[in-house]
Write a structure and sequence with these properties.
By secondary structure, this protein is an all-alpha fold. The protein has one domain. The chain has six helices and two strands, in the order βααβαααα. The protein has a two-stranded antiparallel sheet. Helix 1 packs parallel to helix 3 and helix 3 runs antiparallel to helix 5. The chain is globular, with a radius of gyration of 16 Å. The termini are far apart.
Length: 148
């Protein structure tokens, strides 16, 4: 029996959920924003936009050969991502928590969603999604390192 979700829309929804909460909360006073190279910012935003839009055009095939380990990996990546968001919100939304290691994972709030997106590309069977996730990942992690 093949299990296929007709749309991959669940992927961007799961990634964006904590971001929506963050946007709805009152802003926290922070220092001056660090300089981010324009090219990296453009590449990051292209990758981000692509990873948010592409899943709507692909089904999630949950019955592929390695679907179970991929889904477990996605679940772990999402659990780390959500745990880091909870830590951030519970920690008074201190900017230092955005880049703080978690369970030995450096930059978990950048690495975990990228791992989730890369793994989701397998369930979608989409090279386009894989490319978009890699582009977003390289630029997002690079910018995260520069802004520590």
């Amino acid at each position: 029996m093949s299990i296929v979700l007709k749309s991959g829309a669940l992927i961007p929804l799961l990634i964006m959920l904590p971001n929506v909460v963050w946007m709805l909360l009152p802003k926290v006073a922070v220092g001056a924003a660090p300089h981010e190279p324009l090219l990296l910012t453009v590449l990051e935003n292209i990758g981000r936009l692509a990873t948010l839009i592409l899943p709507f055009f692909f089904a999630l095939d949950l019955h592929k050969r390695f679907s179970l380990p991929v889904m477990i990996g996605m679940g772990l990546a999402l659990a780390v991502y959500y745990a880091c968001w909870i830590r951030y919100f519970a920690g008074g939304r201190a900017a230092a928590l955005l880049g703080a290691p978690f369970l030995g994972i450096p930059l978990p709030m950048a690495v975990a969603p990228i791992a989730f997106l890369i793994l989701s590309s397998y369930l979608m069977g989409s090279w386009w999604m894989l490319g978009a996730a890699l582009l977003f990942g390289v630029a997002h992690i690079w910018i995260s390192i520069l802004t520590l």
